[in-house]
Every structure is written in C-alpha cells, then in structure tokens.
C-alpha cells in the first residue's frame, strides 16, 4: 500500500516545477507611463489604468475646485464691498497708492510660483497658503479698482459678471464643443491683445482715445470669457485636461478669469466718480 502512494514532493520532482521570479520595476512599467490626461499609452489589459472615465474621481475633483473657488470669490466680494461702501477705507487707499503696487508685486510673485513650479502648487499646505496670499493680493487690487467707480456701477457690473459666468459655466458643461482643442485660436487672440495693450499704454501718454479703450476692454472681456470656458472644460476630461493633483492650478485659472471679466466689464459699463 505504501508503494502506491505518491507524495507532493515526488510530484514536484517529477515535473521539475520552477516558479518564475517576479518582474522588477523596469519590466513592470515598460508598457507606459501616465500623462496629464490619466491615460497610459501602450499598456496592456493586465495593467490597471487611471482614466478620467472614473466618475467619482472627476466629480470629487470638480467639487473641490468649485468649493475653493467659492471661498475665493467670497473674499473678493467682501473686500470689493468694503472698499466701495466704506468711505474712510476708500479715502485711505486713495491717499496711499503704494499699497496697490505692493499687492501687485505679491500677486505677481505668487502667481508665477504657482504657475511655473509644480511642487509648490501640489504640496499641501503650501499650495493653499500661496493661493490664499494670491487671493488677498488680487482682491485688494480689484477692490481698489472698484473704489474709483460709482457704487451703482459696481453693483451692476457684479450682477452682469455673475450672470455671464454662470451662463458660460453651464454652456461648458452641457455643450459638445471641445474648447480645449482651440488653443491656437486663444493664443493668437491673446497675443494680438497684448500687442494692442502695449501700444495703448504708450499712446495714452500723448493722445487719449476713449472709444479705443472701450473697444480694447470689450475684446479683452470676450477673450477671458473664452478662457473661462476653456479652463472650465479642462476639469471635465476633454481632449486636454488637468491632473487631479492640480486642483489649486485649476482654481487659480478660473478665479483669475472671473476677476478679469469683472474688471473689464467695469471699464465697459462703469461710471467713474467725479
């Protein structure tokens, strides 16, 4: 009876089973690496892919961006209201223009830091600290600009900005038009307006043309409305999209678009105080 039994060890020796070694890192990742849209080019079916098709990831990303954006806009609205309705503060900032240029320097430094360097805009809490400083600086600049206009004009421009931005946001989420594929058009439009801005900045010292400044403000408002649609669709996983880790950069872009739209609307429809 004992001769008829076959043990597990005998079976292993009979078939000479050799277990393969696990793959190293280079072999495991040879199929491809992720790009900004979350797709792994060249990967097989055995590798797990991160895709924007995951509705939970996309939904959480969009919710985080708009939550931070709402907080930024609340701060800006509070500062604009304070500088518009409070006469002592309005008189102080008018008599001390140096604070505006200090805020402009802070705005420029924080903006370039978040725009150029990937690590500060992705590493918590530094990304939120830089974003908060950026928001306060730009809010001060916007509030000081609003203080030179009539109070009713500021309120009307705020309402127009809210309605326009809501319409563009709804359009960006509902339309089948992919605005992220029109980067060349936006770049050409932006370059042309930058050249016009440089020319107007020199021309205004010798000859002031009101209708020319109004035309420039109108074209600039249209440009940033297009940029708002572009930046909004960058959240949605279109042809070009942002990495989920870049929620601060996404918030920064949309917030800047909205503030610029309000500023140019103020130049279009606002009445300066006498």
Task: Explain how this protein is built.
By secondary structure, this protein is mainly alpha-helical. The chain has eleven helices and no strands. The radius of gyration is 27 Å and the shape is globular. Mean pLDDT is 77; it is low at 1-5, 14-19 and 25-50.
Poorly predicted regions are 1-5, 14-19, 25-50
The portion of residues assigned to helices is 55-70%
Number of domains: 1
Number of strands: 0
Rounded to the nearest angstrom, the radius of gyration is 27 Å
Mean of residue pLDDT?
77
Largest sheet: none
Number of helices: 11
| Percentage beta strand | under 5%
Counting helices, strands and paired strands, the structural category is: mainly alpha
> What is the ordering of alpha helices and beta strands?
HHHHHHHHHHH
Cα(first) to Cα(last) distance is: 114 Å
General shape: globular
Short description:
The protein has 274 residues and is mainly alpha-helical. It has one domain. The protein contains 11 helices and no strands.
Describe the SSE topology:
Elements: H1 8-15, H2 25-28, H3 55-85, H4 87-95, H5 98-116, H6 118-122, H7 126-146, H8 151-174, H9 183-203, H10 210-233, H11 247-269
Helix pairs in contact: 3-4, 3-7, 3-11, 5-7, 7-11, 8-10, 8-11, 9-10, 10-11
